[in-house]
Amino acid sequence: MPNPVSFLRRRVLRGCGAAAVAAAAFALPASHAFAQDYPDKPVKIVVGFAPGGTNDILARLIAIKLQDKLKQGFIVDNKPGANSAIGNDFVAKAKPDGYTLLVSSSGGLTTNPILMKSLAYDPAKDFEPIALLGTFPLVVTVPASLPVKNFAELVQFAKKQPDGKLNNGTPTTSFVLVAETIAEKSGIQFTHVLYKGSGPVVTALLGGEIHTGVLDSPAVVNQVKAGKLKALAVTTGKRSSALPDVPTVAESGYPGYDIPIWTALMAPKGTPEPVLAKLRTAVAEILKDKDTVDKMHAVGLDPGDADSAALGRRITSDIARWSAVAKQAGIKPE
C-alpha cells in the first residue's frame, strides 16, 4: 500500500507544477501583449540639464522620431541641477514601465559617482541601458572679445592672469574632468564655475562673465559660426564635422589627445524586457535614418547604436578611466 504522506506530497507537487506552468502560460502572452500595446500613453524623457545643451537637443530630436515611429507622444522634461543628478535620480526612482526614460550625459553616469558624495542613484544598478545615442567632441570656447586667436595663445593668456587661472564655465562633472586633462597637458589652471546646463554657460560666455567654456559642440556651433564666440580646439582625435576649421587639441601641440563625450538613453531598472526591446529596435532604426544622421552631423554629433550590452561595458570602463583622472588631478568627492 502506498505511503499516504508520500502520495499526498506527490499530488501537491504535481498540483504546484501545473499551477506554475499555467501561470507562465498566461504571463508570457500578457508580457508580449503589453509590449505590443506600448506605448498607449505619452512617454516622458527626462533630461537633467537646462534647455540648450547637447542632451536637450538630442533628446528632442529622438523624441520627435520616436513619436513618429511609435505613434505616441514623447515629451522632454528638463530637470536641471546637481550635475544632472536630480533628473537622473528622478528616473532611477520612477515606475519601471517604459513611460519614464532618461537621456543622460556620460557625466551623469560615469563621473557623478566619482565626484559626488552620497549620490542617491547607482548607474550600474538603477538603470537599464537602451542605446548610445551619440558621441561628440567638447570645444574649447572663449568670448569673441578675448584677445586670443588659437589654443597656444590661450595658454599664454592664462599664464598672464594675476592668479594664473582661467574661470571655466561647466555644466557637468564630466566636462570638469575633460578640462582637467587639458590642464594637465597644457599647464593651464582652471577655476571651475558650475552652471545648470550648457545653455547658461554659453550665456555667460557671451556676457564675458567667464574666460572659457569647454563645452559640447551642439551647444556652441551656432554662436561660433555667427562670430559671437571663438572655438579654439576640439577634444576628439579628429576634427568636428560641424566645425571643420577648428583644430584638435592634438593638432594644437598635444599629440595623442582624444577624448569624446557621449549621451545615452536609459530606463529605470526593472523595465520589462519586451518594452526595452521595442525601444532598442526603434532607436536603432532612428540612428540609421538619413535625416537623423544629417541633423546630428550638422551640430557635430556622431550617431551611436542600440548595443545595450556594449553601453553597459562602456559605463563601467569610463568610471574606471575617470577615477584615475580625478585621482591624478587631486579632485575629491564633494
Automatic annotation (TrEMBL):
The keyword Glycoprotein does not apply. CDD domains: PBP2_Bug_TTT. Pfam families: TctC. It comes from the Bacteria. Keywords: Signal. Coiled coil: none annotated. Residues 1-35 form the signal peptide. Belongs to the UPF0065 (bug) family. This is Tripartite tricarboxylate transporter substrate binding protein. It comes from Ramlibacter algicola.
